[in-house]
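User: Hey, my collaborator sent me this sequence without any context and asked if I could get a structure. I don't really work with proteins. Can you help?
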Amino acid sequence: MQFLYHENASEQILELDGDALKHIKAQRKRVGDILRVQNLREFRAYFYEICELGRKATLKLNHAKELSAQEYKGKIIWAVCDVSVIERTLAGLNELGLDELILVYSQYSQGNVRLDFARFGRILANSCEQCGRAKALKISLKNISEIDEKSTILLDFEGEIKDLKLSQNQTLFIGPEGGFSEAERQRFKHKIALNSPLILRSNTAIIACVAKMLL
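Assistant: No problem. I've predicted the 3D structure and written it out in structure-token form, which is a compact way to encode the shape of the chain:
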């Protein structure tokens, strides 16, 4: 773990319980030890001294340090699929340095999926703690009617195989497991295909595309 996330990092006194307390006990921290804590809102680390450690931990701010700004790139649109698949994929997208993920319900999305953005936030915070990312991946839900077809490129087997170097105003759209409907293919004219003879699952495709775009 690179640091501990706490939404109130920067305040003079922090109290920890629950998972955060379990983490520092698992690391065998003791009273007097210094913990690095970040709030995922700024490029700054806060260092706290452990003052009490029992059923709760009390931390007192010792000093703060400005961090070098991290650059996150790219925006991906992903059609909603099984929520467990989304949850398993978020950490990888966050660790690859993707800037923004937009979820939409497409025609072949699972319509009964309930998206728990609070849980998504916890998954991303845990990922940031592990990989050292200072600000988490931005994630939102939009209606597919809000998506601009002129600047959106479908990842589709009907598309042309070409490099995934998109311009700044272009956004890649990854479909659900069932792919895109004919109406969606008609609406979004720009299409691209991966150079693979195999059919990729939706979450495999999005990880592969982000890796090719950013690394």
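In plain terms: The first helix runs from residue 18 to 26. You can pass these tokens on to your collaborator as they are.
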